[in-house]
Amino acid sequence: MAVCALATFSRIISVDRTKAKIFALYFTPGFRYFISMFEISIKSHFCGAHKLRGYKGVCARLHGHNWEVEVFIRGNKLNQLGMLVDFRLLKKFLQEILAGLDHQNLNRLSWFKKQNPTAENIAKFIFNRLSPKTSRANCLLHRVRVSESPGTAAWYDE
Questions:
Q1: pTM for this structure?
Q2: How many domains does the chain divide into?
């Protein structure tokens, strides 16, 4: 059983994330928490090109990937149908974001003008855009996983 916090912490003394136990927690007023019992995920993909500015090697040249994206949602309450959130709705939300990345030179997108479009930064980009959508659907976006090639992945969570 995992413990998720939805607030601003002033201090967390000890968190064992593998067993998801919080031993001591100091928090600001307005702190809300819930015990997560369910986690779902969906996968999707997009094709996109990028180059890594400042990188010494072949990735400094423009090249493409078939990016794989996986999104993880957590929550403790199921709806009347027994679902945390409808997979179809979650896929729709993700596709709205990925449509702006698909078949693009990612370096030309405004969000990546000042930072390299690495798997890490793409995961954060997707998380930041997806989180408000999932909040409106009454579920918590737990993390986003992005892979540019088999055997590699980057995760972003808050």
A1: 0.78
A2: 2
